[in-house]
Design a protein that fits this description.
Layout: E1 7-16, E2 25-31, E3 38-39, E4 42-44, H1 51-63, E5 68-73, E6 78-81, H2 84-89, E7 95-105, E8 120-127, H3 140-152
Parallel strand pairs: 1-7
Antiparallel strand pairs: 1-4, 2-3, 2-8, 5-7, 6-7
Amino acid sequence: MNKKDLYRPNVAAIILCDEYPQKKEIFIAQRNDLHDVWQFPQGGIDEGEEVHEALFRELEEEIGTNKVEIISEYPEWLSYDFPPKIAQSMKPWIGQKQKYFLVRLQKDAVIDINTKHPEFSDYKFVDVDDVLGMSASFKQDVYEKVIQHFKKEEFL
């Protein structure tokens, strides 16, 4: 198996609040299995599933709503390696390759993290510049690339 095949295909969403563009706050959620680790909603792409289908399914599964509008898409796949402790539980994967989307929450969307299989214990909307200080160290390079790209494109 090729090393690139060992990265789990994944989608991730940077969710802008429903008051965007007047207010540029983004959603971040605290994982319920890692102490004080916050992240963007993300999840695996099922076999045969299209990327956009996976995005909307994962949002529904993780935050209880998929009522979002896609604003932009990061132009390429980004990858990161799992830390050893996480890698043990994710075998055969050694990391994830992700497609990132910038989305805006619709006005009538209701976030509910108490889903069938909850992944988050808390969430909040924060200023984009506060995200890196709250996220897991092994994801920070990817988060920084994506945030800088969307800033350069003048979305953030």
